[in-house]
Amino acid sequence: MYKNQLQELAQRSCFNLPSYTCIREGPDHAPRFKAVASFNGESFESPHHCSTLRQAEHAAAEVALASLSSRGPSPSLAARILDETGVYKNLLQEIAQRVGAPLPQYRTFRSGLGHQPVFTGIVELAGITFSGELAKNKKQAEKNAAMAAWSSLKQRESFIILLLIK
After folding, report:
1. 139: domain CATH number?
2. Where's the DRBM domain (predicted)?
3. How many domains does the chain divide into?
């Protein structure tokens, strides 16, 4: 999933496609792999050894996407594309799965005039509710809520500790 998202980001932003290099360690009967994803002039290494090359490449792509998304919302092309691909919703789902919490639950509320509606998105994750910026449609409202949740969570020390434990 992460390799696909990173490739989609590259294609949408006219960057070169990501490339992967692999480090193999261990005996033939029990090899371990680490991968490095090279993307847009940056390198992102898988945080741990994996039992397959595929897992190591996905882990490196996950690090790349997390790093790019952690730069937060900005008018830059990469941030806009990350938002368009829904990476923040995917990151929230991954967090919930890692910590054993229920999947994020989204709600949208409509307001404004009938011909010019405005939508507010709310996401609940592990008992915490986050609200995003106003949007012109429900889909974008959910993405905005996910982006707000991710931005808030990455600033919390307990969130970082939970990710490190898993």
Report:
1. 3.30.160.20
2. 1-70, 87-155
3. 2
